[in-house]
Design brief:
Length: 724
C-alpha cells in the first residue's frame, strides 16, 4: 500500500500544471483492496427483458417483460432467484407500457400508449390510474429518464427539467436544469435536491428549487472518468455508488472521498442497465440486451477483506486505449491479476484543448515516470517516442517474446522497434492507407501531385468523384502515405516537400465529399455499398444506411473486415479495384497497440503474461490487421460466418444483388498478405510531431495561416527539436 501511495503522490507531482493530464487512477481506503464479490443470478427462462428493479421493505423487487401480462417478482434469498409474487393489472385504456418507475408499495409511474397509440404518462396506484404530464409527455414526447419518491409525492426528470408531482396528479413545482441535458438520477438529501447526468451534477434547494452554487472538481472528475453509467445514490450515507465496466466505485458527498470497491473488469453487454443497492449493501445489477436479460449480485464483504489479486498498471497516452472487455478476458484467464489503467490524456491529438506545451509536458512527465521506482508495469507506446526510451535505457528487451515461426507473422511489423539486434516494443496490430475506385483514377493516385490535380480537374467539371468516411480517417490515410517523403535521413523536415504535401492535401480535402453528402450522383452505373461491412453486432440488413455510387473513389485506412473480401468482389463485379497509397515506390503502415515493458516494472512476470496475451490474441483486429497471419485469416472467416447470418436475414437474392460479398480461400488470403509484408514503417507519428503538423495544416486549411507560414511553423519547431 505504501508503494501505491508513493506512486500516486509522484504522479500528482509530475503531472500538475498541465491541462487534462492527471492520471485517471481512483483513490481507495488504506488496507482495503476489494469490497464486493460477484455472483451471477439465474433468472427463470420466461423472464426476458428488465423493466424495473427496486428495493421495497427490505426486499428486492423486479418487473420483467414477458410474453404474458407484466408481474412483480421478488428475490428469494434461499433459492437465489426471482419468484413471481403479484400481477400488474392495467386499465383498459393502457395499450402498451414503455417504462415503469416504482414510487412506493403498489404505486408506479408509467409511460405507455393508449388505445389510440398516443403517448401518455400516468400514476398507477393499485388499479387506479391518474394521468400526469398531459401537456408535456403527450405533446412533446419528452421522455422521462428517472423518477424518485420524496415526501408527499415524487420527482420525475425529463430533458433539462425536473417535475414535482403529488400522488393525485397535481404539479407542485417545475425545476429547469439547463446545461445538464438528460438527468439519469435524482435524490434529495437534507433539503437539497441533486440532479445527476453522466458527467456532472447540479444542486437545488428543495422544494422551492433555487439553484445552489455547487462546484466540486473531485465529484465532476469522478462522474466523467468512470462514466459508463450511474447506479445508485445511497441516502443513508450520502454516498454515490457507480457500477462501471472497470468495477464498482463510490463517492462520499460527506468527505468527497472516492473508493474503488471492486477491482474487477466486468464485460457488460449492450442495452438497458438497472441496479439497486440493498440495506446490507449487496448490489443487484441487470442488463438487458433486447434479446435476453442477465443479472448479477455483488455481495458486500466486510471492511478488511483483502483480495489475492496482484495489480498490474497499464499506462497509455490516451484514456480507454484498451477497452475494459479486453482486460476482462485477460483477468478471466489469469485471475491472479487485476489490470489498473492510467492515462495522461482523455482527448485526441486533434482536440482544441491541447497545446504544444501541454503535449511536451506529458511526454516529459511520461519519461520521468518510466525512470522512477514506481514505474507502470506495461506501457502502451502508441504516439510515444520509443526510440527516446530505448536511448535512455528505460525499456526491457523483448526478444524472448518474438514468435518463433516467421511464416505465421508480419515480421516487418514486429521488427518496427528493433535497435542493435534487440526489440524493445511489439505492436499487436497495424493499418495501412488504401484507395478504392475506377482503375483510371487509381493510376493517378500513385503520385500525390498527380492525384490532387486529377481530383481538382474533375471537380472543375462538376464531377463528384471522391468520397471519404470521415475527415479524421482521410487525414490519417494521407498522413501515413505521404508524410515519410517530407523527412530527410537525418530526421529534419524538408520544407519544399512539406509545402507540396499541404497543398495537395488541401486540394483533396476541398474536393472530397463525406459519404452522406447531399450531392447529385449520375444514375447510369447503379448503386453499391462502399467501404462498409458490419461489425460483429450488426447484420447486413443494416447496410442500406450507407449507400454511395460505384463511380466515386473512397480513401481510408485499410482494415481487415472492411476490405479484403470486398475488394475482390468489387473488381469482379463492378470493374473497380483497390491499391495501397504509396509514397514513391513504397507503401507504409502504422503500428498500433504497441506494448513495451519498462525496466522498473514492479510486477515483471505479470507484465510478461499480459504482453503475450495481447500479442497472441491480436488485439483490435476488428479495426486493424493483427500481426498474426492466422489471426487475420480467422477474422476473415469469422466475418464470412456473420455474412451468412446476414444473408439468411435479408434474403440470398437481395443481398447478392446489392453487394458482392466474397469468401477468400487460404491461398487468396496469403496472396493478398504479400503486399502488406513489403510495407515499411511510416514513423513520424509521435504525439508532438503529429500534433504540430496537423495543427499547422488545419490553420492553413481554415485560412488562419498562409501556406508559407504554416509550413515554417512546423519546420522551425521540428528541426530545432531535431538539432537539440
Amino acid at each position: 500500500m505504501k508503494k501505491f501511495l508513493l506512486f500516486s503522490a509522484l504522479l500528482l507531482l509530475i503531472l500538475c500544471g498541465c491541462s487534462k493530464i492527471e492520471p485517471t487512477k481512483p483513490e481507495q481506503k488504506d488496507g482495503i483492496t476489494q469490497f464486493y464479490k460477484e455472483h451471477e443470478i439465474k433468472l427463470p427462462q420466461n423472464l426476458n427483458n428488465i423493466t424495473a428493479v427496486w428495493q421495497e421493505e427490505n426486499h428486492i423487487k423486479a418487473i420483467f417483460s414477458t410474453d404474458t401480462p407484466l408481474a412483480v417478482y421478488t428475490w428469494d434469498e434461499k433459492k437465489e432467484t426471482f419468484e413471481k409474487t403479484s400481477d400488474l393489472s392495467f386499465p383498459s385504456g393502457v395499450e402498451s407500457v414503455d417504462n415503469i418507475y416504482p414510487l412506493r408499495k403498489g404505486c408506479y409511474l408509467l409511460t405507455y400508449q393508449d388505445d389510440r397509440w398516443a403517448y401518455r404518462c400516468a400514476i398507477l396506484d393499485g388499479e387506479k390510474i391518474t394521468p400526469v404530464f398531459e401537456d408535456i409527455y403527450s405533446k412533446t414526447n419528452a421522455d422521462i429518464t428517472c423518477a424518485t419518491p420524496v415526501e408527499n409525492g415524487f420527482l420525475a426528470g425529463t430533458y433539462e427539467n425536473i417535475y414535482f408531482y403529488t400522488y393525485d396528479g397535481k404539479l407542485v413545482n417545475q425545476y429547469n436544469i439547463p446545461n445538464l441535458s438528460t438527468p439519469e438520477a435524482i435524490t434529495v438529501i437534507d433539503n437539497t435536491m441533486y440532479a445527476f447526468a453522466w458527467d456532472k451534477v447540479k444542486a437545488f434547494s428543495f422544494p422551492d428549487g433555487k439553484q445552489l452554487e455547487f462546484s466540486n472538481e473531485t465529484l465532476d472528475r469522478f462522474l466523467q472518468e468512470q462514466s459508463i453509467f450511474l447506479s445508485h445514490y445511497q441516502k443513508s450515507t450520502n454516498e454515490i455508488i457507480k457500477l462501471c465496466s472497470s468495477g464498482i466505485y463510490s463517492f462520499s458527498l460527506k468527505d468527497h472521498s472516492q473508493q474503488h470497491l471492486l477491482k474487477k473488469h466486468i464485460n457488460f453487454e449492450s442495452g438497458t442497465k438497472t441496479t439497486v443497492l440493498t440495506p446490507n449493501n449487496d448490489l443487484f445489477f441487470f442488463f438487458d440486451d433486447y434479446q435476453s436479460c442477465k443479472g448479477y449480485r455483488f455481495e458486500y464483504v466486510k471492511e478488511g477483506y483483502r483480495s489475492d489479486t496482484e495489480e498490474l498498471t497499464l499506462y497509455s497516452l490516451y484514456k480507454d486505449a484498451i477497452p475494459d472487455s479486453f482486460l476482462t478476458e485477460f483477468e478471466e484467464k489469469y485471475p491472479q491479476y487485476y489490470v489498473e489503467t492510467m492515462s495522461a490524456l482523455d482527448s485526441s491529438l486533434s482536440s482544441e484543448t491541447l497545446t504544444e506545451d501541454s503535449i511536451q509536458t506529458v511526454l516529459n512527465n511520461t519519461q520521468t515516470l518510466l525512470a522512477s521506482k514506481d514505474s507502470p508495469d506495461v506501457i502502451l507506446c502508441d504516439h510515444l517516442p520509443v526510440d527516446a526510451y530505448v536511448e535512455s535505457g528505460l525499456l526491457t528487451p523483448l526478444n524472448d517474446h518474438l514468435p518463433k515461426k516467421s511464416a505465421d507473422w508480419f515480421f516487418n511489423v514486429l521488427h518496427t522497434f528493433r535497435y542493435d539486434k534487440n526489440t524493445y516494443a511489439l505492436p499487436a496490430a497495424f493499418s495501412i492507407p488504401v484507395i478504392t475506385g475506377p482503375q483510371g483514377a487509381l493510376d493517378a493516385s500513385k503520385d500525390l501531385r498527380t492525384f490532387s490535380d486529377y481530383l481538382a480537374a474533375k471537380a472543375a467539371e462538376n464531377e463528384n468523384l471522391f468520397y471519404h468516411m470521415d475527415f479524421e480517417n482521410l487525414w490519417e490515410a494521407l498522413y501515413t502515405a505521404y508524410i515519410p517523403e517530407c523527412f530527410l535521413e537525418d530526421g529534419s523536415i524538408d520544407k519544399t516537400m512539406l509545402e507540396t504535401f499541404f497543398q495537395c492535401a488541401h486540394t483533396i480535402f476541398e474536393t472530397a465529399h463525406h459519404e452522406d453528402a447531399d450531392v447529385d450522383l449520375p444514375p447510369e452505373n447503379g448503386w453499391i455499398y462502399s467501404f462498409y461491412i458490419p461489425n460483429q453486432y450488426e447484420l447486413a440488413a443494416d447496410l442500406d444506411e450507407l449507400l454511395i455510387h460505384d463511380s466515386p473513389m473512397t480513401m481510408g485506412l485499410l482494415s481487415s473486415i472492411e476490405t479484403l473480401p470486398y475488394i475482390k468482389g468489387l473488381k469482379e463485379k463492378n470493374g473497380l479495384s483497390s491499391s495501397l497509397l504509396s509514397c514513391g515506390k513504397d507503401s507504409y503502415f502504422v503500428p498500433s497497440t504497441i506494448l513495451a515493458l519498462p525496466k522498473n516494472a514492479p510486477h515483471a512476470e505479470g507484465a510478461k503474461k499480459f504482453l503475450d496475451f495481447v500479442l497472441k490474441k491480436g488485439y483490435d483486429y476488428w479495426t486493424n490487421f493483427p500481426v498474426s497471419f492466422q489471426k487475420l485469416q480467422d477474422t476473415l472467416f469469422a466475418y464470412g460466418e456473420m455474412d451468412a447470418a446476414g444473408r439468411s436475414t435479408i434474403g440470398e437474392g437481395e443481398i447478392t444483388k446489392q453487394k458482392p460479398y466474397v469468401q477468400l480461400t487460404k491461398e487468396e488470403t496469403m496472396n493478398l498478405f504479400k503486399k502488406f509484408v513489403t510495407c515499411k514503417y511510416s514513423g513520424h507519428s509521435d504525439a508532438l510531431t503529429s500534433f504540430l503538423i496537423r495543427q499547422a495544416f488545419d490553420d492553413y486549411q481554415a485560412n488562419r495561416l498562409s501556406l508559407t507560414d504554416a509550413v515554417m511553423s512546423v519546420v522551425t519547431k521540428l528541426n530545432a527539436t531535431n538539432t537539440d
